[in-house]
């Protein structure tokens, strides 16, 4: 069976994960599952050593109806859903296929007030990724069309496990390692070490399994001289703990290792009998490994078009569960940036991929074989690059990952002869291989059905679908307003700002123009509107740059906004926001960073309709959580919307075209790498970008600032020399804390930490001007000439995934420096005309 030209299933696995996540959630803050219905959405993987997941639902009320819908996203998964009491000693309802195809769906009327639970599982022998909707009093959950409302009433159940060890740190400082295997992403690891005797002052490290990377370390967070660490596991992997001591101390210790049990942190957790960690014995490793086998190939990749089937496949047969596959690709030509995929033998499923994990431009992956069978590797490239490469493929040979493994003479892989480039020194390939596009319009997707007789109105760029009957009924005057808004938004975003138009659709709504459906969404789904991506087209024909994950889609907008105080203003803001999601789909529907989508679309509201925009209502969330890293979210789900401020800050410094350029990077890079790549192109750094963002937030340097309802949160107020620290938590990577500086004179400011940089901002409210002093870790500032002054505490560490951001504790030391030479302010135009003193 021939391989596909590209691993298309990668697109579709990501597609389902983003369908609901990138809808606009203009939900009123008071909405709740109790009063007006609520919907939550979860994603997961089932069947590969995991039989199912429990989700607990709290405080349900008699008479409410729970709706459940589980759909397979990848693999051959056949979902199965149960609903029961909280402890699952009773099963009230279950279902296999009521959701259509293999999808499961059920509804259950709550008989009495209380807590309940649901369990998602699978038909034996099936496996894959799933999407799961849980709704209260929202029947559209049953067909999978309901959008998340932002309510929280269901929580993934994570069973707590605690293990206890006793050990000794020797007089020479030698400690002990404890290895942990197969930890699961999303679990929270808690570690606690306490001294038992002697003068031991324990010191705790958490690292990867080989301790080539220290993830966290701690001395005294456990109280007294005891150590404690909390860490959310970012990805399924193996980890290790090292228990050591402050130099010159030794003695016996007690170690608690726990999963999902925060009482570990104070040493009071109860031991459960589970095995989480094993003591590492260097003479007898805790986990036996198989006999290492290594093979290598040389090859060439040519062709820079997004439509090129450029890449080389290597097939691996008869791999065994428990083996670990290691692959490393090194560019031998300066013009090549390799990209690596591992999939099933036909590449219907992509298991793992990597761009730069091997260092520099090289790629590297580690993949534990989940089940006996055949697999395949695709060596590809970043668009526009080509050249020679060297690939090393190993089984149970981790040294492959740094390119040092030597071939053992074993045959692990064979070159697939259908590859579209020379591999193994030009051993074959068919440069003329025909590439099928991701969609050819043979199968049209379903569109929403109106409650009454459907009518359409056509403009130059849109087909508007509406009805005058039923719950979706509109008025002629409302239709006229929508027509005006749509064409205005299209002209603003496409013609004036220069964004490429989204890909045309396949005529699902009549022809290839963009479709918008005016329907009752607020009462039905709890949202003002949403953008729905459909088929992946690969490269957007409207864009000059090649894309791989572009998609077309359609819009649904509420039919009257009757529940809003200003219906037409809200409609216009919603159209601007949602249409920009359709524009974004023309770049990439598959990026893991949801904040790019929501922050940019919210920013576009302020550009298209500065009077009608609804983006300013989100700002208090960012100003409340200044110490949370960019791209992370708050419990209310609004922080990724509030980060339109970061997009606006980018546009203020580098022009609105920089925002579009950011999306060129989003189309070709994953995660924070897109933003980092843009900043490098602009000649700046992530740290400088966040510093300017933080100053702008303090000074309120935004045209929309008069609409903002609060100022940045202050951790403390410095009113005397001494040590000053945070009030509640530290500061995450590339985030900041603020302190008011109620001192006038010459003072030295010291952080004492290499990743904590200090900035002092002096403000003269009589002239609406501000000066900025970049202190770094240590410096002297004269605050005598300012009516207000503030210290910004910046964590300079970078990160790839905001879900892995952690808080760093900090202390700022302030000392009298009268007579010392003070720093000069940096060059820059800092406008304090909109400044309001934080409270």
Q: Indicate the CATH architecture of the largest domain.
A: 3-Layer(aba) Sandwich
What's the N-to-C terminus distance? 67 Å
Give the percentage of residues in beta strands.
25-35%
Fraction of helical residues: 10-25%
How many separate domains make up the residues? 5
Cα Rg? 28 Å
Flag low-confidence runs.
1-35, 282-290, 304-309, 418-437
Main β-sheet, in a few words?
A: 5 strands, antiparallel
Shape: globular
**What is the CATH class designation of the largest domain?**
Alpha Beta
What's the total number of strands? 41
> What is the residue-mean pLDDT, rounded to a whole number?
86
Walk me through what this model shows.
- The chain has 839 residues and is of the alpha+beta class.
- Residues 1-35, 282-290, 304-309 and 418-437 have low confidence and may be disordered.
- The protein is built from 12 helices and 41 strands.
- The termini are far apart.
- The strands form 9 sheets. Strands 5-4-7-2-9 form a 5-stranded antiparallel sheet, with no helix packed on it. A 5-stranded antiparallel sheet has the order 14-13-16-11-18, with no helix packed on it. Strands 23-22-25-20-27 form a 5-stranded antiparallel sheet, with no helix packed on it.
- The protein folds into 5 domains: 31-156, Jelly Rolls (Sandwich), CATH 2.60.120.380; 161-271, Jelly Rolls (Sandwich); 293-415, Jelly Rolls; 452-590, 3-Layer(aba) Sandwich (Glutaredoxin); 708-816, Jelly Rolls (Sandwich), CATH 2.60.120.
- Helices cover 15% and strands 33% of the residues.
